[in-house]
Design brief:
CATH class: Alpha Beta
Strand order of the largest sheet: 4-5-8-9-10-11-12-15
Radius of gyration: 20 Å
Shape: globular
Distance between the termini: 24 Å
Number of helices: 11
Number of domains: 1
Strand content: 15-25%
Number of strands: 15
Length: about 350
């Protein structure tokens, strides 16, 4: 396999529409905040059914006859609430801390670690007290001075897919723009970045796009923006002066993976505006899963072609107290070396933050 492989043209696909929930719940206190009132108005304008609930933990009557149907409907359910816990989790290796503005995702990526993180309640939650979250972030920044403190906003969600409802990323971006020692980072599989393009950011927010081979996106990433949409959005972000990055994840070993990832990086180089390639960063994450995730994925996506044969993997201890299954060392090395070479071939000035 050589990098001169002819690039296959992408099919013309329907534009990915912004997320519109089927049902919205409001938790106690949500309407005491301007953001909660604004979201309620947004819901009513669109005639979206809504209910009041004493707690998201009491949402048990989502429609659906089977577990698969209930899971699918949960993914189209939005819960509007107040973030009570303002102690931020660590977010290595991406950042020092995860900054909580939302939880859950409307995408249906078969491999996603949120399968287990969110357990039996995969509905989407957004928090209206972003002012409290910003104040907590300020305390973390001050405590670590004079070091720079980085915050990851996409650990438990894809906030870009919710920005047209919340405006929360805009709040964080404008806050971090004024913080000499604060930096914001988030990654997305969605292209709806227009609300962010004219914000004052001062270069303190790095926006990254999750990309993958055509095979992986088609097979394992339903309900997300197409590759071409993501790259067009990346060009917009670069033109707006934001630091730009890409996460290739999960890197999957499949028949023809060399061609797939060579195609990916060639296509990225061909379509990304030339002035968007300065100071690019890449993060490389191989596919991994736990036994718990394997069970849930097989229940929720029984026809998935995602390979999760434990006999073909090696065990690695995870930070959440479970073994995860990754590729054997020989395969890891082949994946890392091949993709790294293709990155530097097309983007010689890029930085690879890590391979894990």
């Amino acid at each position: 396999m050589t990098t001169e492989t002819r690039i296959r043209p992408l099919k013309q696909l329907k534009a990915t529409k912004p997320f519109l929930p089927d049902l919205v719940y409001f938790e106690p206190g949500a309407l005491d905040y301007p953001k909660g009132v604004s979201i309620m108005a947004w819901v009513k304008e669109r005639d979206i059914p809504y209910r009041m609930t004493s707690s998201h933990n009491r949402i048990t009557n989502l429609p659906g006859e089977t577990d698969q149907e209930k899971y699918k409907n949960a993914k189209r359910t939005l819960v509007v609430g107040v973030r009570k816990t303002l102690k931020f989790d660590q977010s290595k290796p991406s950042a020092e801390y995860a900054i909580p503005i939302s939880t859950g995702c409307m995408g249906h990526c078969h491999y996603c670690y949120l399968q287990t993180t969110l357990g039996a309640k995969p509905y989407i939650r957004i928090y209206v007290n972003t002012g409290d979250v910003v104040q907590a972030a300020k305390q973390y920044i001050d405590e670590r001075a004079p070091e720079i403190t980085r915050f990851e906003a996409a650990c438990t969600s894809d906030p870009v897919g919710l920005e047209h409802i919340t405006g929360s990323l805009a709040e964080l971006i404008t806050f971090m723009a004024k913080e000499e020692l604060g930096r914001l980072r988030f990654v997305t599989k969605f292209h709806h970045v227009d609300p962010l393009l004219y914000l004052e950011h001062n270069g303190h927010t790095r926006i990254r796009f999750s990309i993958n081979s055509d095979y992986v996106i088609r097979q394992f990433e339903p309900a997300t923006s197409h590759f071409a949409e993501r790259i067009e959005a990346a060009g917009k972000i670069a033109h707006a002066g934001y630091p730009l990055g890409f996460i290739i994840a999960p890197i999957i070993w499949y028949e023809g993976w060399q061609e797939g990832y060579a195609d990916l990086l060639q296509r990225l180089a061909d379509t990304l505006p030339k002035d968007a390639t300065d100071e690019l960063t890449f993060e490389l994450i191989q596919h991994r899963f736990t036994k718990t995730a394997k069970t849930l994925i097989e229940q929720r996506y029984p026809k998935s072609k995602l390979e999760m044969d434990i006999a073909k993997r090696t065990m690695k201890w995870g930070r959440w107290g479970q073994y995860k299954y990754v590729y054997p060392a020989e395969q890891q090395t082949a994946l890392r070396e091949f993709i790294t070479e293709r990155i530097f071939e097309h983007f010689p000035e890029a930085k690879i933050d890590y391979f894990t």
